[in-house]
Amino acid sequence: MDAPQPMTDEELAEIEELADAATPGPWHVRQLDDDFAMGLVAISTNPDTGLAERWPNFDHHELVAATLVQHPRYVDIADERWDENAQFIATARRNVPRLIAEIRRLRHLLAANGHKTTGD
């Protein structure tokens, strides 16, 4: 497998624009339940309460994404990694901007020490 090409400053800026345009964080994994979305695993702007609330006892306006909607089977990944996918999505809201900042910080340090950065 070939090594990936270095990320350009323009590509980094595009990722940052996408992150900036998304719903503000933090995001949390929620375990919800109801007659229509039995076993709903969702990403929410509010933390999970541990009560597996049933609709209408949760605000659907807080949900950013879902990784499992069992009934009917609208969202149900074959590898059954609903919780893992939800955790990844929820933490990406915080971690992607941090990774962008870290890349820029490291590039700045390299440039300050006379090294050519890969973003040039």
Structure in a nutshell:
By secondary structure, the protein is α+β, with helices and mostly antiparallel strands. The chain has two helices and four strands. The protein has helices at 9-21, 82-112; strands at residues 28-32, 40-44, 63-69, 75-76.
Unreliably modeled segments: none
Mean pLDDT across residues: 90
| Main pleated-sheet profile | 4 strands, antiparallel
- Terminal residue distance: 24 Å
Helix content bin: 25-40%
Tally of contiguous helical segments: 2
What best-fitting shape do the alpha-carbon axes yield? elongated
Strand order, sheet with most strands: 1-2-3-4
Estimate what percentage of residues fall within beta strands.
15-25%
Order of H and E elements: HEEEEH
Computed over alpha carbons, the radius of gyration is 19 Å
Number of strands: 4
Q: How many independent structural domains?
A: 1
Structural class: alpha+beta
Question: How would you explain this protein's 3D organization?
Answer:
The chain is 37% helix and 16% strand. By secondary structure, the chain is α+β, with helices and mostly antiparallel strands. It has one domain (9-112). The chain has a four-stranded antiparallel β-sheet with strand order 1-2-3-4. Strand 3 (63-69) and strand 4 (75-76) form a beta hairpin. Helix 1 (9-21) packs across helix 2 (82-112).
Pick out its properties.
alpha+beta, four-stranded antiparallel β-sheet, 2 helices, 4 strands, 37% helix
